[in-house]
Amino acid sequence: MARGDEPLLSQGRPSSDHSDERSVEEEDALLTGQKTQQPRNYGWASWREIGLFAWATIATALVILFAILYSHQQQTSKPTPSGGGWKNGRPTGKRNLIFMVSDGMGPTSLSLTRSFRQTESGLPIDDVLVLDEHLIGSSRTRSTSSLVTDSAAGATAFSCGQKTYNGAISVLPNHDPCGTVLEAAKRAGYMTGLVVTTRITDATPACFAAHVNHREEEDRIAEQEVGEHPLGRVLDLMLGGGRCHFLPNTTDGSCRQDDRDIVDLAKTNGFSYVSDRKGFDGLNFGSNVKLPLLGLFASTDIPYEVDRRNMNDIYPSLDEMARTALAALQSATEDSDKGFFLMIEGSRIDHAGHGNDPVAQVHEVLAYDTAFASVLDFLDQDDVEGVLVGTSDHETGGLATAR
Length: 403
Fold this sequence. Notes:
Layout: H1 19-32, H2 44-77, E1 85-87, E2 90-92, E3 95-101, H3 107-121, H4 130-133, H5 151-160, H6 181-187, E4 191-199, H7 203-209, H8 218-225, E5 237-241, H9 262-268, E6 272-274, H10 277-281, E7 293-296, H11 305-308, H12 318-332, E8 340-345, H13 348-354, H14 358-381, E9 385-391
């Protein structure tokens, strides 16, 4: 064949004597689904690719292995500022735990408060609460007796880690008492405290330091909180309201059913006692506190924040009490290898919801947000390892913000 008559793509391409046979094999493979057997020719390029792949696999495995070993070494041997670390997968060293409860607060409470704050203060629509910046999820709550838990069953779940019936104060459905995280902390050598804006004998604080069959047994709760308790005194600090349950019914301002003087019992058990704004101010935000301390600043509940702020010379705020408690417990544990457990409750968010009082509710949420921010500041500045856990037990009042 003349060169000019050769096929267009045949130039420079060697011909194969077996090309017809190969075409037949390929047709059979297409019809039968069986692969044709091609001879493999491993040249230098193939071996180079195999070597590079093997090296990359081994290098990746080594990097992962070293990362795991380094992380484990950091957790088990690196000391924390408070001398803590990890041993056998468990944390060691001094630590503090602050547990905060926004009683009765739900997502709509936050939404209304956020919008109110933006409008009142002329803030942009993307301005958020401190709480918003630390929201990591939500929880579903219920009790063993109702789809809607009350504060007693909710706080028992928080303190004991077990479900119970509405109204129960750290007792199970069979009325057996359950050990609380506060009691466990005290037995382990930690200092403990409660800060609330309702009665210190109310359901949430009671569930951390008392055991009764029903939340209405506040006289008995008061007795247990000052040390008439199966484990002895488990509390080092209490700040809130509810003075009437500590006074004998022979005195003005008492709501007890008997003539027992629980303030006197507290003093017998070593408590120092303050009952008014002057006494609170004398604590000097925790620098002048003698523990154990009982501070009862209202006969029943401390007024709603929207009203209390106009009576600041009579009642301390949640933020003031929280900062005082933190400083007092920090000072008391300064030379100890144990830290403290403190429960802080924004108690009256719940009451405002029950009362369908949106004005009171937004100001209670704002007061709680301020206290939350103060706890964060404390943890940032403290040398001791600490953790803040904040949650709500339920929502109240059916608040809605739709048109």
